[in-house]
Amino acid sequence: MAAGWRREVQRLPEEAPLPEWVAQLDRLAFGAPWNRLAPHEALWVVPELAFARWARVPAAGEAELLRIAVAPEARGQGLGRVLLEACQRDLAAEGLVHLFLEVRPSNHSALRLYEACGWESCGRRHRYYTDGEDALLFQRLD
Ligand SMILES: CC(C)(COP(=O)(O)OP(=O)(O)OC[C@H]1O[C@@H](n2cnc3c(N)ncnc32)[C@H](O)[C@@H]1OP(=O)(O)O)[C@@H](O)C(=O)NCCC(=O)NCCS
Fewest beta carbons less than 10 Å away: which of 9, 18, 45, 47? Predict the structure, then answer.
């Protein structure tokens, strides 16, 4: 199954409107969807099933994972990993090799995904989220 999804990963063109299913999955996973992509952002999708949204800083060779979500019915089958690895490959091909993200310590499935994809914890932001939970900082260096 994971091998099949690999063929489905697409990077959306920067000027493309945000698909409605992305907004719906964003709302479901995080409560409120972000709006259209800013010029420095990029979006990878497995249509109707998963998306990953990044902010890119080409001059610094850096990118930050803003959000990744898999549709609830497709979780736990390797799709998140296929999507994240595809993003990592594409970003590395652009020279963006210093990757960062923030994650809640309570988000065990996300922590497992990031560790499985070679990310390492590199710090903590205290009371970062609006509900008072800390954020763990993760990095991945190619
Ligand atoms: C986090 C999320 C993207 C993971 O996607 P997924 O497709 O379910 O993940 P995968 O099936 O590719 O699993 C990747 C790894 O994490 C592990 N994992 C995933 N979900 C897990 C869970 N609930 N419990 C334990 N391990 C889990 C898998 O075993 C796998 O590890 P392995 O490769 O060593 O076996 C998905 O759960 C999700 O959309 N969550 C809601 C949104 C969210 O919290 N996003 C992250 C914050 S930005």
Answer: 47
The ranges of the chain with pLDDT < 70 are: 1
For residue 82, the Cα-to-chain-centroid distance in whole angstroms is: 11
Give the chain's domain count. 1
* Strand ranges of the sheet holding 135-141, from the earlier edge strand across to the other edge: 10-11, 41-46, 50-57, 62-70, 98-103, 135-141, 120-125
Mutual orientation of helices 108-116 and 79-93 as an angle, nearest 10°?
50
From ligand 1's centre to the CA of 110, what distance in Å?
Answer: 5
Which residue has a Cα nearest atom 30 of ligand 1? 113
Q: Average pLDDT of the chain?
A: 94
Determine the structural domain holding residue 86 and report its residue range.
Answer: 2-141
What's the pLDDT score for residue 104? 97
Residue 80 Cβ < 6 Å to ligand 1: yes
